[in-house]
User: What shape does this take?
Amino acid sequence: MKCGSCHPGAGPAEFSRDKDPNDPTGQAYLPYYDESTGQFGYEVLGKSASDVYSEFDGDYTFLHPMFMKYMNAPWNATGVSQADCLICHMEGYSWFNRTVTLGAGPNLFMVTGYKAFQSAPAAGAGWATINMNAVVMMPGQLPYLNPQAASDFAIDYDLGINSGTLSYDDPNNPSYYVIPAEVIVKETPDQNCWNCHGTPDVRKYGRSWESDTDAHNARGVFCVNCHPAGEDAPDPKIQGHEKHDFAKGTSMIGSVRDDLDGTMFDCEDCHVKGAYPGAPDPATAHAQIPSFHFGKIACESCHIPYKEDSVITPTKEDPDLVIDMSFNGNQVIYPWSSFFDNDPVDPTAHDSSAPSSRWYPSLVLFKGKIAPAKPLLTIWWGEWNGKTDPDEIVVQPYPLWQVRLALQTDPTTGMPQNPVVQGALTNDSNALAADGSDPYEVNTTAEIAAYIYALKTATIQVTDGGPDGSGTTPITKTGLGSNPVLVKGCRIFYLADDGGTPDDPSDDTIASFESELAEPHNFSIHHNVQPSYRALGAGGCEDCHRVGSPFFERKMLICPWDENGNPVYESAYEEVGYSEGELEELTESVPEEESPSLGSSECFIATAAFGSPLEKHVKVLREFRERYLLTNPVGTLVVKAYYALSPPVARFIARHETLRAAVRLALYPVVGIAWASLYHPGATALVLFGIGAAAIVVVRRKRSVS
Assistant: This one.
């Protein structure tokens, strides 16, 4: 029900994993429930409800979280969540109405005769009557319809006729409803995107799409301007047969459709290449910045220096920072404010000159550049295969419901009742959840040993509910695994020695090792771009190159709690690979232009003249150098001489606008020849031949005159 709020159906939301035996192509899958025949998919396969229940088929059975019973999924009472085009293509589509209808679940059918999953699209389009007094909030703050208080729920297509979102196929002799063409919008409106992306993205990325927190939104840039779809997208991966694919940014975490990473318009596409008309050219603003910065730092690192809450939205947008699943088998969420105030260098300090909701992204190395990231630290239990080699290590997470049963977690208080665990836990009031509860962490060796013992030895039990959910047969399991480990704070903690008394964890030895599996999950940051006057560097080099720099010395959370219950932080300069000595150099003085290697991307004089290494004329010269100069000994000598002599000349040019204009004018013919050489070699030969012929004619005339 939660997933269906945003996932419009089809595929996994409509069909089971079983192939349809009656399909001649052998490619079609069975629907969970066929409305036309009144059959479940398993019935088409000749199975009964008891058969699929005993097989614990996840398509047709589920574990009831309250009664801990395996029960049948009531597809016949909910209907099937089918594709809903209007969730994207209707202006004013009500995600709220869709969500409350889905949340009513099978009970809506029992009370009103309407199937919740089947009715949700019509409710979202505005074609249903909903009693708002029956809307309540469910865990996770998703609204749902209490069917007992909503007996007046009904699909009413006349609402669409009255609002103009529906019409009759024939006004004089109507037989069915149609959606007028003007109701369907080709480009998905921002609000439709934000209906689904708003809640999870605020929690994961800490972002909001409001005019007061994003310069692009303030300028009227829409989601689809940067994330074009179908034939509007320049990338052939999007233009292919799947016309509904949206262009995607580059994600630090591989998740969904990684093959589409990097297909959206980036900063350079819009501001240098002209993909978005009217995007300001950064060349002049970047003229005073040594050009090697652009090869080392992502645009977002300077242009998203911080994030803060929108004054437009009613709730505080405080992103999740830590999700602790180790304490009681539930997700105990600690937001950013649990570990940081609003000072980038001192997590405990408050900067009275900045909004209290301001927070600073982590800085990490990504694809060779320093880039901002929003970290998420998770703490969890899993089964370890005993390997430490990064290519061989596997830790399989334990299902949380099994962890809760092993710890005997009280559903009301959230406290583990397992006596071994209870005896080892200590109250650490220095770390609290968002609501001030759960002042406990699993961090001491005694606590870790007690939990490992409990997970290895506890007997857990669920109930065989049978096809109608009334069964009482117990299903038992002893121990969640043979090698439980705690994954936390960049390390994996395991039982190294049981002390010779397997039934007594008090003398156990706990050891740990570093692993990428335990590192923070870094989410790429591309939104909430600040106006240029707020970007790092707008106030001069000292924005970054000073002691206490918010760029180099900002703190990042590495581990929520060490053995003493204290958070562990790391400075950004450490994360991106600088030493303390290099930090001193970077913060005590402004660095000069570096001496480049032959493989560097700098064209110093051209960059000074045109203002940016990303400027199109500079890129042509750089490509000409790579293809024609560095591929032969003579050209390589020319490039070496240029690198040795040009940096001081370029710095002088950059400081004088009149000189910059003169150099640009002088470079235009050179750029033209370079461009022709790259893209029209034949034309270049003619041009050079013409220049040579003209030179010969001039020389001969001079000789004849003399």
